[in-house]
Fold:
Amino acid sequence: MLIQFQAYLTFENIYLWTSFGILPFWIMLIIIPNSKVTQFFVNSIILPLILSTAYVYVIYQTILLDEPIFDVFRLYLGLDSLYAVFATESFLLIFWLHFVALNLFLGSWISRDGIKYNMRRSLIFAPLILVYFTGPLGFVLYWIIRVFYAKRISLHD
Structure:
């Protein structure tokens, strides 16, 4: 049974499950950020544990495929090297999991911070959508909104 399950865990399936599986958590962050369900699933260790398990599994499969795992450090040598690293399916999936996990963490932080400052959900909606797609751009928008809402500038929390 374990071998059948492992045969199902292709890189394509992991990508699809991650891409669509993360959407309910984003919807919870946007619509019901104060609920116990959101606190349990999104703001706890459960989701990072699931994503990190997928991350480790993809790295394990990369090693089994005899792909040079340390070639990932070539991405710092220039755009051509970055393109070469992303041309490898396993490395592309590793970075996708990285992107999804960090954006969800950032979205979760924005949601909790908005609750801390008693901000309306309508103010946080656009930054959360932008964080889902672009990460830092949504964070900057949230920071600008927070500066005007809290009427103070803080470069750290």
Q: What stands out?
A: The chain has a mean pLDDT of 87. Residues 2-119 form one domain. The CA atoms of residues 15 and 96 lie 8 Å apart.
